[in-house]
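Hi R.,

Here's the input for the heme C complex you asked about:
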Amino acid sequence: MILKTTTNFSLSLIAAGLLLTSCVNKQGDKQYEDPRDIPVNQVMQAELTAPPNVPTPVGKRMAKKLVVDMEIVELEGTMVDGVTYMYWTFDGTVPGSFIRTRVGDEIEFHLKNHPQNKLPHNIDLHAVNGPGGGAVSSLVAPGHQTVFSFKVLNPGLYVYHCATAPVGMHIANGMYGLILVEPEGGLEPVDREYYVMQGDFYTEGSYGEPGLQPFDMQKAIDEDADYVVFNGHVGALMGERALEANVGETVRIFLGNGGPNLVSSFHIIGEIFDRVTVEGGSLINENVQTTLVPAGGAAMLEFKVDAPGEYLLVDHSIFRAFNKGAMAQLEVYGEENEKVYKGKIQEGVYAPEGGAIQVMPIDRERVATSKTEVSEMTKEDIMERGRAIYGRTCFACHQNNGQGVPDVFPPLANADYLNEDIDRAIEITLRGKSGEITVNGKKYNSVMPAQMLSDEETAHVLTYIYNNWGNNGTGVTPEMVRAVRSK
Ligand code: HEC
Ligand SMILES: [Cu+2]
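And here is the predicted structure with heme C in place:
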């Protein structure tokens, strides 16, 4: 399948071109060495976009007075299946709306605090030259609005965030976003641009523990994150919401890190960044595998996609990716190009230690204490427990709705392999699996690690899977699991 390009930018791209060409600023026929002197004669309403979209590039437009209207909204949202969180947001999304400006623009910032909010907030934009980055002038109570103004002088990609005390808590709840300041004449055109921002979250319950999870101040102080995510929640850019591109296109990601605490080791599995604006500034690095994005920092990443398939965006502090949610997906469509990537050309078994499956040690204590009288649990309880376990353990590979990842992780949704042999599914969950299998007509040859689950947990998660997504409705009991375990 070939996607239409969503943006209409010119395809031509000067490969060695600089992202931020610093030069003299023109306004009409006049030139200005100092961007402070650029006059603004016209007023324009800023286009703001929700992630992962970005507004239209500034192109060759003159500097203007740009009116930004932003509304602060406190709202309950989903962190991961079964888990909700009280987010504080700029414009109702995490990260907040993307603001796109050019050097010399004078920004008239209208900040509104929705009357149903509980707290005062403000905004500190790292693109501002002035006290508190605007925070000093923008404190606004619920049901009020404030207006302040600043001129953008330095080209680059900047974080904005709330800076109301306790600052860490406002940021931890999702109050951050990006503002881009393009140089005179704009950035080099590319085929696709996306807006991605990492953030760490601290909840009273651990990862996947269901229900509305309150913010945990002590964990935040200890920098002990339960969730590390892209665009506000687990799976925000996975499956149907994956980023997309066609083979041969150049992609630019405006990447931010809201923190509050963690530094991102940002990496795309299977891709190399042709160009990175280091820390979102004017220095360009080339051919980068992993780029470091500080908390409260940003970077612009450009790369041409050469081969079709599935690419995963991760924080390469890798437990965050597979266990805390720091994973997004880029789906590339188009024709295979054997010059670039040949796929598998030979295949065989290599097992130096007799088997490639890693066995996670079973937590004996947990096995003992988790023997809540299963007989007393209702079907709803079991499904709820199963759902939480799925979100904690299977989700990272088998995905949100059990759809898996093509060629890598087989589906658990509507899966013939799963439905035709229950003991085998129990066995795989307990002991892991390697070697070739065929699921719904597609071959997989990978390794699933043995899962560190008790008999009860294994029974609950499999019952949840069997009773969802078009599967056959089997109820798996702890006795069934025990029987397979003792084999
Ligand atoms: C680290 C990634 C990973 C995790 C986590 C994981 N799996 Fe798997 N799973 C795989 C892979 C890879 C295969 C295919 C193995 C092969 O090719 O031999 C697989 C295969 C399976 C299969 C058989 C194939 C099918 O589609 O029916 C079942 C059943 C299964 N997994 C269940 C689970 C359950 C239940 C969990 C959570 C308790 C889980 N898996 C967690 C990677 C994972
Ligand atoms: Cu705030």
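One thing worth noting: The domain at 14-343 is CATH 2.60.40.420 (Immunoglobulin-like).

Cheers,
M.
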